[in-house]
Amino acid sequence: MIEVKGITKRYGSTTAVRDLTFTVRPGRVTGFLGPNGSGKSTTLRMILGLHAPTSGTVTVDGRSFGGLPRGLRHVGALLDAHDVHGGRSARAQLMALARSNRIPAGRVDEVLAEVGLTAVAGRRIGGYSLGMKQRLGIAAALLGDPPVLLFDEPLNGLDPEGVRWVRELFRRLADEGRTVFVSSHLMSEMEHTADDLIVIGRGELIAAQSLAEFAARGTRRHVTVRTPRPDALVDLLTAAGASVTSYGERLEVTGLDAPDVARVALDHRILLHHLSTENASLERAFMELTADSAQYVGADLPSADLPSAGLPSADLVPADVSPADLTSGDPR
């Protein structure tokens, strides 16, 4: 369990985190969300004792992480996949970590197999793609078989197979009773992965609740309509008591359900090209509830013009690595 109680972190006149309190429970995958500059990375570093809070306390299973001997046996973390010695091999990197934490050497080969890097374990990390470095970082986090695991943007650089594998790995770790805390900006993945959410903005807590409860805080169900006569339909639906937002030929309607919208259109001989009911989504809730906390905001676009949330880019494979070297190893 991770317990954060009233932590504040100041850097000179800048307050990165302000009076933040939350609990990350075992047996759950907890997503950690927030706009850029919200204080997520600073908070993770305070949990790991890399930064000291200006005030407040952070404990892991009731103790400060800095006071835990052989830390990898208690907490495994991936904060930055690039934070490795590029001249070492993956096996040498993990062996050094194992020796410093009195972890049996045999555990190194176990985690290399689990993350699918056995075939390239003897190659220098400097030649790894980002996705391969992410797998190595996950292996390092798993090395001490810890009860608590923290991951900062673990899906960056992974191909679709890697994303699926990580999703299943996090689920298995939580089902084993471990505490799994995952910082990510990928709303689509959090919908598939997280049980609970901690959401912060400008260093302050916005929400600490289940994923379903958080998604329900956003705009609830609405009806999406496409018609070549949007202006006429807007007037009719508004007269019928609906609230309508227009994006050209696409309308978002609240206050009436889909059959009622269809009936209004039929009664007035208005052609519909599309009619559907849209449920609340995590992405919509996140955008609405963090709108005032975003540090960098671009120009507004109708949601139909926005690119869909996709998977991270695929691994870029170095020229000296064959496809056979990249077998992904099923999580156990």
Automatic annotation (TrEMBL):
Keywords noted in UniProt: ATP-binding, Nucleotide-binding, Transport
ABC transporter domain residues: 2-227
Keyword Chaperone: no
Region (Disordered): 308-332
PROSITE patterns registered for this protein in UniProt: ABC_TRANSPORTER_1 (PS00211), ABC_TRANSPORTER_2 (PS50893)
Any GO MF annotation of the entry: ATP binding
Pfam families according to UniProt: ABC_tran
InterPro entries assigned to the protein according to its UniProt record, in alphabetical order: AAA+_ATPase, ABC_transporter-like_ATP-bd, ABC_transporter-like_CS, P-loop_NTPase
Family: Belongs to the ABC transporter superfamily.
Record PANTHER family: ABC TRANSPORTER, ATP-BINDING PROTEIN (PTHR43335)
Protein name: ABC transporter ATP-binding protein
Organism name: Streptomyces polyasparticus
